[in-house]
Design a protein that fits this description.
The complex is a heterotrimer.
Chain A lengths: L2 E10 L13 E11 L4 E5 L6 H8 L7 E6 L2 E2 L5 H10 E4 L13 H11 L5 H14 L5 H5 L8 H13 L5 E5 L7 H18 L2 E6 L2 H7 L2 E6 L2 E7 H6 L4 H9 L7
Parallel strand pairs in A: 3-8, 3-9, 6-7, 7-8
Antiparallel strand pairs in A: 1-2, 1-4, 4-5, 9-10
Helix pairs in contact in A: 3-4, 3-6, 4-6
Chain B lengths: L1 H38 L1 H19 L2 H5 L34 H36 L2 H16 L2 H12 L4 H28 L2 H8 L4 H37 L10 H10 L7 H29 L8 H6 L1
Helix pairs in contact in B: 1-11, 2-4, 2-11, 4-5, 4-7, 4-9, 4-11, 5-7, 7-9, 8-9, 9-10, 9-11, 10-11
Chain C lengths: L3 E12 L2 E13 L4 E5 L6 H8 L7 E10 L2 E2 L5 H7 L4 E4 L13 H12 L5 H14 L16 H13 L5 E5 L7 H18 L2 E6 L2 H7 L2 E6 L2 E7 H6 L4 H8 L50 E5 L2 E4 L8
Parallel strand pairs in C: 3-8, 3-9, 6-7, 7-8
Antiparallel strand pairs in C: 1-2, 1-4, 4-5, 9-10, 10-12, 11-12
Helix pairs in contact in C: 4-5, 5-6
Classes of the chains: A alpha/beta, B mainly alpha, C alpha/beta.
C-alpha cells in the first residue's frame, strides 16, 4: 500500500488576524478514507466543488488538513518536515490541470523540467541534460533539442501538458497525482495524453491518483474509482463494477448525465 | 567510452543552442516591447527629454575645465559680483555673487539624476522585497509588514525630514536620498504584494513546491522575475517623486549646502531677494524640475502601456487574432 | 426558403504578418426549428463563424467572400445600425464564458428587462413583467429569484439566466458557443435538456458550437465537422456519427472516450493522428499528412466534395469511392 487516507476532514474558514470572529466555514473534505496500492491507478470522480482537488492538495501537503490521517509509504504526511519532507517531495509528483499556468512563463522548457533535479541536487549539468532529454522524449516531445529551449508560450496546450508530465516524471516518482490533466485540452489531444499516461504507468509501474469529473476518462484509465460528492465518498469499487452497477443515487445521476449518442 | 563522450558533446551543444535561443528570445521580447513603446508619442517625448537631461548631466563636467570661474559652486567671475542677465560670457547670466547659472543648471541635472535614480532604486529594492515577503509569507507577516507600510505611508514625509534636519542640523545629499527612499517604499510594496498574492495562487508555484523548492527559491526564482517589470515601472514614478521631494527640501533651505541642485538654486534666488528681479535666474531651474519629472512620468506611462496589454489601443486587434 | 443560408463564406484576420484565413469556403443551410452542430478542435474557426453571423467579428476580422442570407436578406449588406436591430431580436447568442456575461452589479432580472426594453420599446410595463416571468418559467428558475444578483446564483443557474437573456426577444435563431464547457457533467446535462425543451416549445433554430462531440450529438440534428477553417464532413447526425467517412472525423470519433468504453460506429478505425500539418490552405488536403489512408494524389491535388447520400458529404477524394 502506498497511500492510505483515513477519515480526513478539511474545513475552510476565514481566520481573522487579531480582530473578529471566525465564521462557520465550509467543509471541503468530510471524512474521506481510501487507500491506493503500489502501481495502481485510482480514480477520484466528482463534480465541481466536490472536494476532489482539495484532497489532492492535502495529499501533496500543499495544504494542511484538520483531522484524520494521510500516510504515504507508511509515513504520516502531516508530520513531514525538513529532510523528510524533501524526500517525500521526491517520491510524489503532480500533473496539473491547467497547462497554460503550470509552467513559469520565464523558464524555458529545459529549465522547468530540470528544476526538480536542481532542487534535489541530482547529477551535474551533463547528467541533468541527459535526464531532461530522456524525459522529453518519453513524453513525446521529440527531438528534445527542438523543445528544450522553447518557452511555454511557444508551445501548444498539448505540448505544454507533455512538458508538465516530463517534469513530473523526471524524479522517477512512485506516486503521481493527476488533477484533471486534460480538462483544458481538445478531445483528440487529451486522448493522446491518456495514452501517454497509460504507457508511463505500464513502463514505470507508477501509482496514480487520477482526479477527474469525467467518468469516460476514468473508465479508460483507472483500475478502481471512488465517486466523491460534497466532500464524502459515496461509492468505491473496481471501475467497471461502479459504472455498470452503480449502487449510490449520486453515482447513478452522474452516469445518466454523461452524453450519450442516443438520437432521440 | 566514445558513446558517452558523444552524448555529452550532443548535450553541451544543446546547451549552447539553449543559451543562444534564450538570449535571442529575450532580445525578441525586448524589441517587441520597445517597438510598442516607441509607437507611443508620450513615451517618445519623455525619452527625448530624458536624453536631453542626460546630456546636460554629462556636460556638467565641461565648464569647470574651460575656466575655473565656471565652477558651479566655487567659481566666481572676477569681473561680476552681482546678478547679471544672459551674455556671451555667461549664457544664462550669473547669480548675485557672480557664479555662472548655466553651469549650475548642468550640475543640477546631474544631482537630479543622482537623487532621483538612487532614491528610487533603494525604495524599489526595499518595496519589492517587503512586498514579496508580505504577499508570500503567511497572514501574520503580511499583516505586520503591511500595517507598518500603512504607518509610513500616512506619515507626512516632507515634514518628518524637515524635523530630522532641524534636529540633526544640515543633512548631506546621501542622507536625504536614503530618507526619501525610506519614505517611498510602501506604495511599491503594496503593488508588489498584490501581484505576489495572485502569483502565489498560480499553479506553477504549487508545482515548484511539489518539486520540493524552498521558499527562498520560490520567491527569488519564480516570483521575482514575474514582478520585476512592474517594479521597474514603479521605479520611474518613484524617480519623479524623489526629485520633487529633494527640490522642495532644498527650496525650503534644508538641502545639502554643498550641492548645487535645482531646488538649491531656487532657494538662492528666493533668499537673496531676486525672485521677481531676475527671471533668467528663477525660470531655468523651475522649468528643469517640471520637465524632468514630467519626462520620467511620461516614460512610466508608456512603459505601463507596454506591460499592461489592457491599456493598449492599437494592438488589441492583433491579440484577438492570435 | 431556409432560415439561414451561408454560401461560400471566407473570413480572414489582419495580423502583423498579413491577412490570415480563418474560415474558408464554408456553405451550409439551416431550416427553421433545426439545430446544427459545429464540431472541431480549438482554432478550427468555429467561433469565427458564429461571430460573423452576428456581425461581431473582432476589429481586424473581415469577410473576404461569400454571402450570409437570413430569411432571404443578406446580413453582410446591412449597416452596423441595421445589424444592431437584427441582433438579439432575430439572432441572439449564448456566449462561451456565460458566467462573465452577467454584470455583477446589476440584478439579473433587471439585465434581462433591459435587453427586452431596448429591443421592444413599444412594450408596456405589464407586458415586460409577463415576458420575464415566462422566460424564468422556461429556464426553470423560480420566480422569486428574478431580482437576485448574479453572485447569488449557482453556475448552472447563471447559465440558464444567460439562456433566458438570449431568448428574451424571441429570436428565430440562437447561436450557442460552447454553452456548457465550464459546467459540471450533471449541470451540463440539465442545460442540454433545457435547450432541447426550448427548441421543441418555441420552435427556434440554433447553431451549437462545441469541441465536445457528445454534447453536440445530444443536442443537434445536423452536424458539421470542421478542420483548420474548412468543413470536412457534413450531414445528419445519424450519418456523420454512425457512419463517418472522412478520416479526420473518424480520428476525432475514435479519440472520443465514452462511458461505455469504446465509441461505436461503422468504419474501419485508423490509428488516431493528432499532430496536424500547418499548411492546410496550400490547396492540397491539409489532413493528408496525418491521414492514415492518404494516397499520392492527396498530396498533389486539392480534395473534392464527395456525396455519400443527398444529405451527407465529405471533403475527401477517397471517401465514398467504395460505394
Amino acid at each position: 500500500m502506498i497511500l492510505e487516507i483515513k477519515n480526513v476532514v478539511k474545513q475552510y474558514r476565514s481566520k481573522p488576524f487579531l480582530f473578529g470572529k471566525p465564521d462557520a466555514g465550509v467543509t471541503a473534505v468530510d471524512g474521506v478514507s481510501f487507500s491506493i496500492e503500489k502501481g495502481e491507478v485510482f480514480g477520484l470522480v466528482g463534480g465541481s466543488g466536490s472536494g476532489k482537488t482539495t484532497l489532492g492538495r492535502l495529499t501533496l501537503k500543499l495544504e494542511d488538513f484538520d483531522t484524520g490521517e494521510i500516510r504515504f509509504d507508511g509515513m504520516s504526511v502531516r508530520d513531514l518536515k525538513g529532510p523528510a519532507l524533501k524526500a517525500f517531495r521526491r517520491k510524489i509528483q503532480l500533473i496539473p490541470q491547467d497547462p497554460y499556468q503550470s509552467l513559469n512563463p520565464y523558464f524555458s522548457v529545459y529549465d522547468s523540467i530540470a528544476e526538480p533535479l536542481v532542487i534535489h541536487g541530482i547529477g551535474n549539468d551533463e547528467a541533468r541534460g541527459d535526464l531532461v532529454k530522456q524525459a522529453l522524449e518519453m513524453s513525446g516531445l521529440a527531438p528534445a533539442a527542438s523543445y528544450s529551449s522553447r518557452y511555454p508560450h511557444q508551445l501548444s496546450g498539448g505540448q505544454r501538458q507533455r512538458a508538465a508530465i516530463a517534469r513530473a516524471m523526471i524524479l522517477d516518482p512512485e506516486f503521481v497525482i493527476a488533477d484533471e490533466p486534460t480538462s483544458m485540452l481538445d478531445a483528440s489531444i487529451s486522448f493522446s495524453i491518456f495514452k501517454l499516461l497509460s504507457k508511463i504507468k505500464r513502463e514505470k509501474n507508477v501509482a496514480f491518483l487520477f482526479i477527474t469529473h469525467d467518468l469516460a476518462a476514468a473508465r479508460f484509465f483507472c483500475d478502481r474509482i471512488a465517486v466523491i460528492h460534497k466532500g464524502r465518498i459515496v461509492e468505491t469499487g473496481p471501475t467497471k463494477d461502479v459504472i455498470e452497477n452503480p449502487k449510490d443515487d449520486y453515482t447513478k445521476t452522474l452516469i445518466n448525465a454523461q452524453p450519450r449518442f442516443s438520437y432521440t | 567510452m566514445t558513446i558517452t563522450s558523444n552524448r555529452h558533446a550532443a548535450y553541451s551543444m544543446e546547451n549552447v543552442i539553449d543559451k543562444k535561443t534564450r538570449r535571442s528570445y529575450k532580445r525578441q521580447r525586448f524589441s517587441a516591447g520597445w517597438s510598442l513603446f516607441y509607437k507611443n508619442m508620450v513615451g517618445k517625448i519623455g525619452l527625448y527629454l530624458l536624453i536631453l537631461f542626460g546630456a546636460m548631466a554629462l556636460a556638467s563636467y565641461i565648464p569647470p575645465l574651460v575656466d575655473p570661474m565656471y565652477h558651479p559652486m566655487t567659481g566666481v567671475d572676477p569681473l561680476i559680483s552681482y546678478a547679471s542677465p544672459p551674455s556671451w560670457r555667461h549664457w544664462l547670466g550669473t547669480d548675485n555673487i557672480g557664479r555662472d547659472i548655466f553651469s549650475q543648471l548642468l550640475t543640477g541635472a546631474r544631482v537630479a539624476f543622482l537623487v532621483g535614480v538612487s532614491a528610487a532604486f533603494i525604495s524599489i529594492v526595499l518595496g519589492t522585497l517587503i512586498g514579496m515577503i508580505a504577499g508570500y509569507g503567511g497572514r501574520i507577516a503580511d499583516s505586520l509588514l503591511m500595517r507598518f507600510a500603512d504607518m509610513i505611508m500616512v506619515m507626512p514625509s516632507l515634514l518628518v525630514i524637515l524635523l530630522l534636519s532641524v534636529l540633526f542640523g544640515q543633512l548631506s545629499i546621501w542622507i536625504i536620498v536614503i530618507l526619501i527612499a525610506l519614505f517611498r517604499w510602501p506604495a511599491v510594496a503594496r503593488v508588489i504584494r498584490s501581484q505576489t498574492l495572485t502569483l502565489k495562487k498560480r499553479p506553477f508555484v504549487d508545482m515548484a513546491r511539489v518539486a520540493g523548492a524552498s521558499h527562498i527559491r520560490i520567491i527569488f526564482r519564480h516570483i521575482l522575475p514575474n514582478v520585476l517589470p512592474m517594479a521597474l515601472l514603479y521605479m520611474t514614478f518613484r524617480v519623479t517623486s524623489a526629485i520633487i521631494v529633494e527640490a522642495a527640501l532644498a527650496f525650503l533651505g534644508f538641502g545639502d549646502p554643498n550641492t548645487v541642485s535645482w531646488g538649491m538654486m531656487l532657494q538662492w534666488v528666493w533668499k537673496t531677494g531676486h525672485m521677481f528681479q531676475a527671471p533668467y535666474w528663477l525660470l531655468p531651474p523651475g522649468i528643469c524640475i517640471s520637465l524632468i519629472t514630467l519626462s520620467f512620468y511620461m516614460m512610466g506611462r508608456a512603459m505601463e502601456e507596454v506591460l499592461d496589454p489592457r491599456l493598449r489601443k492599437i494592438q488589441k486587434a492583433d491579440y484577438a487574432a492570435s | 426558403m431556409p432560415l439561414l443560408d451561408v454560401d461560400n463564406l471566407t473570413i480572414a484576420y489582419h495580423t502583423r504578418s498579413g491577412p490570415v484565413t480563418a474560415v474558408e469556403n464554408v456553405s451550409f443551410r439551416l431550416e427553421r426549428g433545426k439545430f446544427l452542430g459545429i464540431v472541431g478542435e480549438s482554432g478550427c474557426g468555429k467561433t469565427t463563424i458564429g461571430m460573423s453571423l452576428l456581425g461581431l467579428l473582432p476589429e481586424n476580422g473581415f469577410v473576404r467572400e461569400g454571402r450570409i442570407l437570413f430569411e432571404g436578406s443578406d446580413l453582410l449588406a446591412l449597416s452596423q445600425k441595421e445589424l444592431q436591430a437584427f441582433r438579439w431580436k432575430k439572432i441572439s447568442m449564448i456566449f462561451q464564458a456565460a458566467m462573465n456575461a452577467l454584470n455583477p452589479v446589476h440584478r439579473v432580472g433587471d439585465q434581462i428587462i433591459e435587453a427586452i426594453r431596448i429591443h421592444n420599446p413599444e412594450f408596456s410595463e405589464e407586458r415586460i413583467q409577463k415576458e420575464i416571468k415566462e422566460l424564468y418559467d422556461l429556464v426553470d428558475i423560480p420566480e422569486q429569484r428574478i431580482f437576485d444578483y448574479p453572485h447569488q446564483y449557482s453556475g448552472g443557474m447563471k447559465q440558464r439566466a444567460v439562456i433566458a437573456m438570449a431568448l428574451s426577444c424571441r429570436p428565430d435563431l440562437v447561436i450557442a458557443d460552447e454553452p456548457t464547457t465550464a459546467l459540471d457533467v450533471i449541470v451540463q446535462d440539465q442545460i442540454i435538456r433545457k435547450i432541447k425543451d426550448i427548441q421543441r416549445q418555441r420552435g427556434i433554430a440554433g447553431i451549437f458550437i462545441s469541441h465536445d462531440i457528445g454534447v453536440v450529438a445530444e443536442a443537434c440534428q445536423d452536424i458539421m465537422v470542421m478542420y483548420r477553417g474548412k468543413i470536412v464532413e457534413q450531414g445528419k447526425r445519424e450519418e456523420v456519427f454512425v457512419a463517418p467517412v472522412h478520416p479526420y472525423t473518424i480520428a476525432l470519433l475514435s479519440s472520443h472516450l465514452t462511458i461505455d468504453g469504446v465509441f461505436d460506429f461503422h468504419a474501419d478505425k485508423p490509428e488516431v493522428a493528432c499532430d496536424f500539418s500547418p499548411d492546410f490552405f496550400a490547396g492540397v488536403c491539409g489532413y493528408a499528412e496525418s491521414c492514415s489512408r492518404a494516397e499520392a494524389q492527396c498530396f498533389t491535388a486539392p480534395p473534392k466534395w464527395r456525396e455519400i447520400t443527398p444529405t451527407h458529404k465529405a471533403l475527401c477524394r477517397l471517401c465514398g469511392q467504395n460505394d
